[in-house]
Amino acid sequence: MRTNGASRRVRDTRTTLVAGVILVVAAAGLxxxxxxxxxxxxxxxxxxxxxxxxxxxxxxxxQLLADNADIEGACAVSSVLDGATLDPQLQVQVxxxxxxxxxxxxxxxxxxxxxxxxxxxxSSASADPASVAGNPAVRVNGSDLxxxxxxxxxxxxxxxxxxxxxxxxxxxxxxxxxxxxxxxEGESGWLRGNxxxxxxxxxxxxxxxxxxxxxxxxDELSAFIDGALYLPDHAVIVTDDDADPTWLTMAxxxxxxxxxxxTSFDITGxxxxxxxxxxxxxxxxxxxxxxxxxxxxxxxxxxxAEIAADMQASATALEGIGVSAAGAHExxxxxxxxxxxxxxxGVREPGSRWHARSSSATSRSAAxxxxxxxxxxxRHGGPRREEAHRMTRSARAGAHDNRGA
Length: 405
What we know:
By secondary structure, the chain is α/β, with parallel strands linked by helices.
């Protein structure tokens, strides 16, 4: 749906899921040293004379890089975690891009507490997750840029317990935006409620940055809901629906400048938008952002097979702008918040890896007196919008306090 050129979409919803990708490794031996302390072994020449040197075998990381020499900025990331077998333990990431689906190990009676660039930090996170595992300055995840030395880096994992996760009782607010305006008084017209004042948005993103909120990825959120991952009670997910031109030109550059990761749910049927490196492009369907025969969204009008075909077309469009297959099939937002059993069946159709999650953003292992929230409630309901307003108010208050200091 479009109105007045720059505004092209309406209030929507989405659900979460995860399709985590676990990747790589092994270690390779060094070449045997010969008696004269050279670093290569030798074999006799076929007809006598000087021996023929035997090449030193590549390490696992070197072999991985050699196999992916066509990837500019390729970096071999090795994962080390006590008490767990990661198969594989090595994966290719890209320098100066966000980490793409780091492994999230699962083990009975344990909860994963994140990856760290320093082994001592990983040990500290296991011993005291409340102090370390919620600190984005030391915990590494998909909101961080890959930084390698000589095309290699090692990350160290930490464990905690499901009881610790439950004790935190963390909830993860998900902020939703649509269009943006530079008019403090806002826009007029029936879609005026979709517009956010860009300076309010800037203040909210600055608040998230200054207050060191942890920014979970969608696969982390899914693992957290399952009680398999520790998240602090100081985490937030930022999203925008529609990939409107005002998002692309006004809001997304703020996220890039502040290095605050956000997700853009794009209606890919009119062309998947190229976005900056701190934005995760995900699906808002390919061609189902419109009303069906009953006046409601196409997700509650089309057959499961038609829904599956549309979602696959959307994934293909996302992969066409460089989104990984795991990311392209990871999560989607239901248009207008409309979905039913056929919708859920459609995203699970054979040939489609989509999966609609209908859980609240609260760990299943955490005791809570409130009922679970459905995805559309997270999208349009109290916790999400209230948190967005609270952040904006806090950001404004902080700015006022700074001016008065």
